[in-house]
Write a structure and sequence with these properties.
Blueprint lengths: L6 H6 L24 E3 L7 E2 L15 E4 L7 E8 L8 E9 L5 E2 L38 E10 L11 H8 L3 E11 L3
Parallel strand pairs: 2-8
Antiparallel strand pairs: 1-3, 3-6, 4-5, 4-7, 7-8
Length: 190
């Protein structure tokens, strides 16, 4: 959708970004140790996300792996945000909540999105108000965007309404995160 914005509009908005300091990793869980290692077979930390996992490709969610999840974790949350979006808050690309602590390998396409229904069903609303994976889709000419794949281990399962949004998720994380981890992927349209 955003690929249709004129290049000049993307360039004009280049200085407007939500900011990484507004991401959940740096706000509601700022004092929590980052002991979870989040990796992907599709891209390395701070490396470009392959087009296959973006709006320029099939839009399938990338494979992910988690290591270092505390044994006493009650549940996991995976939360993907784009802090480079030209908006007041980071753009939400995925909310997957109450994942089981043993769910430490999430295969490609695990989450519903443009490429299919996926296998995970405790999904919240992305910024386009759909439950599931919103593939990276930065405006042309806006510069590189960083996609924060944030994993949170919880002391107790999150009590959220069906189809929670960003605000409800942030409320559920406050005071409930015992460990966190981060993988950053990038994507840019020239």
């Amino acid at each position: 959708m955003l690929e249709k914005l004129p290049h000049a509009v993307g360039e004009a908005l280049a200085g407007l970004r939500a900011g990484a300091e507004k991401a959940a990793f740096h706000t509601v869980a700022a004092d929590v140790p980052a002991t979870i290692r989040v990796t992907s077979e599709a891209f390395a930390d701070t490396a470009p996300i392959p087009a296959r996992h973006t709006a320029d490709g099939e839009g399938v969610s990338p494979p992910l792996a988690l290591a270092g999840v505390p044994e006493h974790a009650a549940a996991l949350i995976l939360f993907v945000e784009d802090p480079d979006a030209p908006s007041p808050h980071p753009l939400v690309h995925l909310i997957a909540w109450n994942l089981r602590p043993e769910d430490q390998r999430l295969p490609e396409g695990a989450f519903a999105g443009p490429a299919g229904e996926g296998a995970r069903h405790d999904l919240g609303r992305n910024s386009f108000l759909k439950d599931g994976w919103l593939p990276p889709d930065p405006p042309t000419g806006h510069g590189p965007h960083h996609y924060l794949f944030q994993a949170f281990a919880l002391a107790r399962p999150a009590e959220l309404p069906a189809s929670p949004g960003r605000s409800a998720l942030l409320d559920a994380l406050r005071g409930n995160v015992i460990a966190k981890g981060l993988l950053t992927g990038t994507y840019e349209r020239a």
